[in-house]
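Z., the sequence and structure:
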Amino acid sequence: SHNLLPVSFSQKLCKLTITISPTGFPSNTITNCTGVYVKQGGNSTSWKIGPSTNVVAANTNNTAAFSPSTTLSTTIRMVPFAGTRTITVHFNTLTISGRTVPNNTEITSTQSIQLKEGKSYTMKIQFKKTIGINVPSGSINLTTNGCSSADKTALAKLIWADGNLKSTGSANYVWGTYSEYGYYYTWKSTYTGNTSLNNTDPCPKLKSDYGTGWRTPSKDEMDKLSRCTNKAVVTNGGNKGFWFMNSTIGLFLPFGGSHDSNTGSKTTPPGNAGSEGAYWCLDANGSTYGYLLYLTTGGESRTGHYPKTNGHSVRCVKNK
């Protein structure tokens, strides 16, 4: 007879801290972050008992799901790797600053690493907003104002600057944050500080960090934006303005006001800031007037022509 004694085996694990870091978004907030897990895959360590043919395999199932919606940092225990490999993190759902990431997104580390027993590791996942705002055609809700699918296609090909132009001088321009008023320019001119015009579109003067191809929108593009998308007066970042496209993804143009009566370019907001806004188009109406998109808190949104020597906001655009 033989006495059978219970035998148990244990293995020292390792710790992996997953951190999620959104940058460049209007609020950098994460919501609806569910079903996050690390894919174990193969290549986990196993251990032998007695002869080399007696092998006990380690657990290679995916880790238990976790939802780091509040802490954005979660530490989990992992089975060590037998060798180096990449690490893949799965997200069932994820929303960043109101923008929905496609379901079942998987992100794989850019380098291979061997997770060893008893050690601690950190994997930082950074969601970085690309420069500019582009709304895909499937997210553009056309109104009934005579808009067509061609209008939707045209709007989807545009990338809008994240904020209003906010620079003086003649080069290396920048834009402000999404809710800032920015500076005020005479028609189709870099900042002059007075009522003069220099027939120079300021948008191509953006510094190289933003890439190339920026320009002031055409009247036709502003017409499409105004006529062919859902829009609402909202408060964003403490300032009122118009929200275009749809309720979750789109373009915010703050009511920066207008320096009317031929008062020229300025760096300070006018008295009507917060109640109306005016954004230059690249098109002219004769030698005296330039077209712009006019917005009010009452819900008015239309293009019209005004003196070129007024000071108005500029929101740059480029083709996708």
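Helices lie at 149-156, 219-227. The mean pLDDT is 87.

Let me know what you think.
H.
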